[in-house]
Write a structure and sequence with these properties.
Blueprint lengths: L2 H21 L3 H12 L4 H7 L9 H37 L7 H7 L6 H15 L3 E2 L5 E3 H4 L10 H5 L4 E2 L7 E3 L5 H9 L4 E10 L11 E11 L4 H16 L5 E8 L2 E10 L16 E10 L1 H6 L8 E8 H8 L7 H4 L2 H4 L3
């Protein structure tokens, strides 16, 4: 085979792909298309195997020709995937009209199901219990001390503004706040248990955010806390990696980025590639290609001290992940607000 023959074969493959891609209007069809063309035994892979028959000096150019076609096919398929997924959902919603005369039958046919966020929470608990963690809970209405001071966030600390909080109008000395994160449960656990502590603490949190594609004002976090002798950042990183594989599967692309939290030092932000656009940039990820799932770091010595533990003896790490975001990224939900609207027609598609 020479280069011009190869070009002809590639042109044929390309045009066959272009014809078939028009008809690929379901996720199943796209998967099939992908495996037929760029899968392990696909048409393009077979060409790579024939490279050996091409004269050695021409092989690099031949490889480039094949790569170009493969890249174009992969990019087209990747682009199509989220679009078809959204379209399939839209069709389900549009055709599932609410016909009141059909109610008895519909009720009979439809069974209840767990809300996607609750499902994620249960699954996260299972994953961490499997890794030897216990599951703890704390109150949603917290004193400012637990929500802020004990976590090394003094009054007038800028982070206190950032956490735009809801205050409860109760009479009494102490201000009571709807917890802005699950981190105050760290303090409660450290006060009531002696290390070694390996605990996760899921629950609802509240912030005065403006709702958008990634935010709602009431959402859920799962806090993690490990306190023991000799705990290092390596333990934190490997725990997060194990968790990511268990929850998202082996292919998820994740990273830790340096960040600042008053209650951990050093601190990092945990991010994954946006699954709505596969990292290309879209409205959901504000065109960054990444979605932040939470924060983590080594527990600050002041926090250990506030909870009555000696930082000379113990060290630890903590993390706080958004359960709604974890659901959003795995189930490819472009706009998080849908999770609070409880539109059953949509919920059935998740
Ligand atoms: N509490 C932080 C937040 O809500 C997340 C976090 C938890 C960061 C634990 C570090 C350690 O943004």
């Amino acid at each position: 085979m020479d280069l011009s023959q190869l070009s002809t074969v590639l042109a044929e493959i390309s045009s066959e792909f272009d014809q078939r891609v028009v008809g690929a209007t379901s996720l199943v069809a796209i998967d099939q298309l992908k495996s037929d063309f760029v899968g392990k035994k696909g048409k393009v892979a077979l060409l790579y195997r024939q490279l050996g028959q091409i004269e050695a000096s021409l092989r690099p150019s031949a490889g480039e020709l094949i790569n170009a076609v493969r890249d174009r096919i992969e990019a087209t398929v990747d682009d199509l995937y989220p679009k078809v997924r959204q379209a399939e959902r839209a069709t389900i919603i549009a055709t599932d009209v609410n016909d009141p005369t059909a109610i008895p039958r519909r009720l009979y046919r439809s069974s209840g199901r767990i809300h996607p966020v609750s499902r994620t929470r249960i699954e996260l608990e299972d994953i961490f219990v499997g890794m030897g963690f216990s599951v703890e809970e704390g109150p949603e209405a917290e004193s400012e001390w637990y929500n802020f001071e004990a976590l090394n966030i003094p009054k007038f600390h800028p982070a206190r503004d950032g956490q735009d909080s809801f205050y409860l109008d109760l009479e009494g000395e102490d201000q009571v706040v709807l917890r802005t994160h699950t981190s105050p449960v760290q303090i409660r656990v450290m006060q009531s248990q002696t290390p070694p502590i390996y605990a996760v603490m899921p629950g609802r949190v509240y912030r005065r955010d403006t709702a958008d594609a990634r935010h709602t004002i009431g959402f859920h976090q799962i806090e993690g806390l490990v306190v023991d002798r000799g705990i290092t950042f390596g333990h934190l990183a490997s725990t997060i990696e194990t968790f990511t594989k268990a929850y998202f599967g082996p292919d998820m692309n994740a990273r830790l980025r340096p960040a600042y939290f008053p209650f951990t030092e050093p601190s990092a932000e945990f991010e994954v590639t946006c699954t709505i656009c596969r990292g290309q940039g879209c409205r959901t990820c504000s065109n960054t290609g990444w979605i932040e799932l939470g924060g983590c770091g080594m527990v600050h010595p002041n926090v250990l001290r506030a909870a009555g533990l000696d930082p000379e003896t113990y060290s630890g790490f903590a993390f706080g992940f958004g359960i709604d975001r974890l659901t959003q990224m795995r189930d490819e939900i472009a706009d998080m607000r849908i999770l609070t609207e409880n539109d059953l027609r949509y919920m059935k598609t998740i």
